[in-house]
Automatic annotation (TrEMBL):
Protein name stated in the entry: ATP-dependent RNA helicase SUV3L, mitochondrial
Keywords: ATP-binding, Glycoprotein, Helicase, Hydrolase, Mitochondrion, Mitochondrion nucleoid, Nucleotide-binding, Nucleus, Transit peptide
One Pfam family here: DExH18_N
Enzyme superclass (EC): hydrolase
Chain intervals with Acidic residues compositional bias: 95-108
Protein EC: 3.6.4.13
Subcellular localization, as worded in the UniProt entry: Mitochondrion matrix, Mitochondrion nucleoid; Nucleus
Domain Helicase ATP-binding residues, every copy: 277-393
GO biological process annotation, one example: mitochondrial RNA 3'-end processing
Amino acid sequence: MARGVAGVLRRAYTSRVRFLLSTRNLHSFGETGCRSLANPQFDEPTTSRFASDNPIRAQRQWNDYRFGGFGFGKVRSFSSTVDTNGENDEKAESDCEEGLGSESEDYDEESMVNELGEVDESLINDSAVSEIGENVTESSEAARALNARYQDPVELYRELRQSEVRAKLQSSELDTLSEIFSYFAQSSWGANQALAIYIGRSFFPTAVSKFRDFFVSKCKIEVVQDLVRVGATDEAVKFLFPVFVEFCIEEFTDEIKRFKSVVDSADLTKPATWFPFARAMKRKIVYHCGPTNSGKTYNALQRFMEAKNGLYCSPLRLLAMEVFDKVNALGIYCSLLTGQEKKHVPFANHVSCTVEMVSTDELYEVAVVDEIQMMADPSRGHAWTKALLGLKADEVHLCGDPSVLEIVRKMCADIGDELVEEHYERFKPLVVEGKTLLGDLKNVKSGDCVVAFSRREIFEVKMAIEKHTKHRCCVIYGALPPETRRHQANLFNEEGNEYDVLVASDAVGMGLNLNIRRVVFYSLNKYNGDKNVPVPASQVKQIAGRAGRRGSRYPDGLATTLHLEDLTYLIECLQQPFDEVKKVGLFPFFEQLELFAAKVPDMAFSKLLDHFGKHCRLDGSYFLCRHDHVKKVANMLEKVEGLSLEDRFNFCFAPVNVRNPKAMYHLYRFASTYSQDMPVNVAMGMPKSSARNDTELLDLESRHQVLSMYLWLSNQFEEKNFPFVEKVEAMATNIAELLGESLTKANWKMETKEEILKGQKKEDRGYDRPTSIIKRKAENFGVKESPKKVVS
Ligand SMILES: Nc1ncnc2c1ncn2[C@@H]1O[C@H](COP(=O)(O)OP(=O)(O)OP(=O)(O)O)[C@@H](O)[C@H]1O
Ligand SMILES: [Mg+2]
């Protein structure tokens, strides 16, 4: 290989190593493989490679190794590198920016050498010294001798390269060498380190195997014998690694270049720079920070309404509708924009939208981003992050709990926006009712909202309450269309009707204003797709915060549980301070994925997302949002030919419940009709009457989901492809009404899964209490638990 190219790669490597090190704790790579690069992968010296009687010298050797050793010249050491207590994180952070800069083409090795000068020995603290001391004593004699003999890996590599004599090895030596290299190929430490020179994980074993052939064919007998004495150990791997690096840089130029270009095209660092117009503005960010029911949204909306134009971004369609209604009722024209519907109000300068619909092209005087703590949501967080970074508004009002306050401060400081903090207290404290419902749903009262975490439980509770008390129940859960949820909420809010109890899932948790006197947790466990786990404290707080809203019929809020044994957990959750969020979500735009796709041609879209996840690079304050459901849809649509990457991207992000075969089937049909350039229709009949049992109710929910999906897609594609919007809207309205009617009439008994499968019903078994996984001792509260009652 030409020396020039080798030099460039070496510099790139040195710079890369420096980049990775300078950004430790700050940058992380995607989900699996590369993520480990973010961790302190360049471990503290634990092997004899850096063994020295003088710990300071050992530390220096280590610094050389970490910061461009291997004969590439020294690179500046950071104080954080010798801080084993992690106290220098801030320093490392400021170095991070420089580290990134150093990745640029004009990296000047010469000036780096000058800049480095000597390592400041005072920076080496006692703990580092003692750690090294211990490691030295631990390292094996053989490894120590090996390292003492071959101190310069570059020199050793040169010797090997120039050697023309093949050493005669005994079969036992060959066997041990084979074990050593096989251990090397499986070393995750080695694979991690190799990423720094753009040797990808999948290529790593091949690279090691080629290196083994090279080593065996070139190595002097003395080196082999020394190495064989060390055996298949970490010490051997760490001894060989720098020689391996030299070998790779010369042997695998093309592979390294290719991998580097893939990694570079998956660069999600510095997301603030994605929005140059917002950066060019001097924005004022106002953070309305406080617990639930403290007036955050109310106050932000006051500014929104005063402004000559404004945007309100909601976490839920239902809340976007609530604001749309409220603002219009106050005489300020406001349009509505959600994935499924666009209601344009003539002369409106204000828009209420769902956060995923945020446009970073329009200019606003005031933008409100509600529930900003959702930036940390594993799946949807990126929409909030984008809104905060990208909105073109003179004032951006954020409403949320304190969990993201610190990270918002940091983001504002990074982007140079002014931050004004408004802190709020809850209007009235939330009171925990120690008595609980004593396990008996007969104890529900007017104004109660019973919260359950599965659709099935919601109906069991509703049926039990309606069977055994005089109360009637409204229901709200995620699978219901927002129109139906709104209808149910209104029915519950209205005075003078018999619907005075609400049974709801966590869909009721965010921002909504309902006439709830008391929130009763039916259970505090939730199925997470794998097993039942306790509901996170932040969610418990949000949900409990629905009780006792200012201006409602019940301004004093109560929260309790059905069972006494769950009460401690409720109290713990409500008392817990908000956890500070360290990272917020990001997701690539289509254009970024397109760029990445060009580097890995012919890769299926589902694999592409995974591949991106593995290679993408992120700053330390960000994580890549989960995209499991997108992958499932992508897999299903793999068979549909003739879709462009952008078409696939759009279809894969359609709101579909991937566990609903009917909805998935229709999505498949939509995509295949579209791929044939034919107008997409909904081939689905309309039910004539409301549901008479749960199966029919589920069917109505599924049908509505299919229609909702069509409407969403119609907003992503051209009208000629989805021309039946009006018809579909009418069908969706009909189904939402049928759902509303069905819920009002619902009095059937829920079938168990087994019954549904077997198609046979068991004896009427009444109402079974849920089993709690948060068993607590009732005595903790000085309250005696009454015998558990079962409504029968
Ligand atoms: N200054 C006020 N005057 C009259 N009503 C108010 C005032 N502030 C808040 N409210 C009312 O109090 C209720 C709760 O306020 P808001 O929705 O703003 O709370 P929040 O802090 O955003 O709660 P959450 O965190 O649950 O979203 C709303 O019904 C709102 O209209
Ligand atoms: Mg709010």
